[in-house]
User: Fold Receptor-like serine/threonine-protein kinase from Triticum aestivum.
Amino acid sequence: MATRFSAAVLPLLLGFLLLQGAPSRAADTDTVVIGRPLSGRQRLVSKRGKFALGFFQPAESSQNWYLGIWYNQISKHTTVWVANRDAPVSDPASAQLSISSDGNMVLLHGDRAKSPALWSTGVAGIAPSSSTVGVLLDTGNLVLADASNTSVVLWQSFDHFGDTWLPGGRLGRNKRTGEVTRLFAWKGYDDPAPGVFALELDPNGTSQYLLNWNGSMEYWTSGNWTGDGFTGVPELKAYSSSPMSMYKFGYVDGKDESYFFYDVKDEAVVTRFLVDVTGQIKFLTWVESAGAWILFWTQPKAQCDVYALCGAFAACVENELPSCRCLRGFRERRPLAWLQGNHAEGCVRDTALQQCARGGGVQGATREAKNDDGFYAMPNLRLPSDAQGVVAAASAHDCELACLGDCFCTAYSHNGSCWLWHGGLINLQDTSSTATGGNSGTIMVRLAASELTSPGRTKTVIIALVAVAAAVAAVTVAVLVSAFVLRRRRVKAQRRVVEGSLMALTYRDMQSVTNNFSDKLGGGSFGSVFKGSLPDATATLVAVKKLEGVRQGEKQFRAEVSTIGTIQHVNLIRLLGFCSEGTRRLLVYEHMPNGSLDRHLFGSSSSPGHGVLSWETRYQIALGIARGLDYLHDKCRDCIIHCDIKPENILLDDAFAVKVADFGLAKLMGRDISRVLTTMRGTVGYLAPEWITGTAITAKADVFSYGMLLFEIVSGRRNVEQRPDGTVDFFPSTAASRLLDGDVKSTVDRRLDGHADIGEVERACKVACWCVQDEEGARPSMGTVVQALEGLVDVTMPPVPRMLKVLGDPANYVKFFSGLPST
Assistant:
């Protein structure tokens, strides 16, 4: 007899059957014992579930597996210790962690009877009759202990750190053996092998920490311990009223060992101290509401103070992303690692040195041909410290000949004395806008002749100059903001640094910065904006936004702001600080001297500074906006939907470079903001249909708004204008019709007098039409928009959206929007 199931019962039954048919999995345990190894997807979990141990892959693209420990109760996989850092396995199913016959914990792979252990605790002298176990503790410490009494620890991972120092661990020195425990950075974000950066207690016996490169070059020290803190790190104290107050630091100088320790006063706080791939030590705390690790302390504070951060033949640029730049004539050795922020392997030559290629490496050899090799001058660089002096070279010309005569010479500098460099140039820093002092000057980098004479190099030089200019601007802003923070600390105001240079300020600070909110720059969907200046030596200009309608509590607001503050992109406005007191919520941004895009598109051309934007500038503005939105949608950890793309939220710096503003405010205000958006003047014309119909909002709502904005950039007029007879002119409908008729030239702003690249105009109109399609699925992603505007992909003729056809009738436009709230 057939049996019928309701739709509600069927899923439950299927789930029950799947559970019955699946192999049962033993409950997680914290212990590995003889005869019960750990393999495949199995794992150990500490008693209270805080940490887990098992096999993992450091990146999605990685083919390697490692045995490691990670936090078990947070949403982001974060590894704190790795056993087989230098010996990955290809298949965790064929690997196992077990207790060997000699009582040690071992990691075996493949044919376990023949293959040597990939990793072992390596404890000598364990009695043959002893029974041992491996136990994962709630501190994150893996111990090898006596099975009958696990308090008797024979080995522990806390004595063999990876890149992370957990609370309760001891980082120090054994006075009897001289052994020093070190934190070794990962080699790369996808490679846990020990890298070149390490932190250790001074092996010479002082009570200070040293950061070193390659075990030889010390580039940062904490200063000695005073009993209350480090002389070089006043913010790290045994007891502090700063954000570090949740931690207790201490130093023990005993007969057999010296070590530092730290503990967390609140066990609910999840924290880690690590040596990052970048060569900086970082203190981070997990903020669940933000779903991210929040950085509140790092050393050295200046990224470029890390020795050899950029590897060979690359220069470090402070406060710029990426922080490293290959020298002219060189390219990234590992492009993928470079994109991930790991620059340690540096750059390689595009073209080999010709004289060396012919074997002209004899010291003192004469130059065989005029165009063999040449030199490119790079001024304003911190010079490498490993130079060799040449006393005989009395002039710059003699110094050049001395370098040319030595095949292994890669660069020279002459400043009264002649200095030569051999091999890779490391530890270079662009000092054009920083006061590094000391060893800074011009270095002459040796290149093949073709690298100096190629006609295609002009564009490279221009790009390099633009990059340097951008670096100067970025560093200047960062230095001024840092000066402001330091000044505020000295006067003991109630504020603190939350993330990098992000400042937490009081409302009284905001009144002072803005002269009691006397100079209003404008307003938008989320509040009013006021001009201000920071109380530093140069009175850095800022824009302060007073948010309206924020419903979040202070703790959640701070978490969200700290997350947004870490987002940096050349086409996104930079958040400098915030205020959160009671119901008052304010944000501090960098000031954009050319204001918002609407002033230049729709303002009077006779107004000072409001000349007609050229087509070239408009196209670059459109491209910059697209790049900024692409970053928000697809390059951030979480997709950020702007929700209010319009000319008023597009700001322009002094060179008319684009800065998308108010990104992340939708995240602060909450997603239910359609009522706010639809009541704001000028915003209705940018809303995607799903805002009005009540459908769930996705990133494609921003794509629609971008398309409407792109129409305005092309035409130089509002999409919606009232005719003299009182009817409404809806320009996007007109533009779509002219595109189909092949008459895109007539869509261009008349004030340009026809001076526009018609190919680019057609491409822009096609992209705009695709962006405003009725169905979300028909709209492109912002990444595709970027590629289309760059000319990397062909753009086919789009269908005219039904909405544009309907709204092309002025009567329909009025009827369609008559039900929305009036302004």
Observations:
- The mean pLDDT is 80.
- Residues 305-364+374-454 form one domain.
- The chain has four domains: 25-158, 161-301, 305-364+374-454, 605-823.
- The longest strand covers residues 191-201.
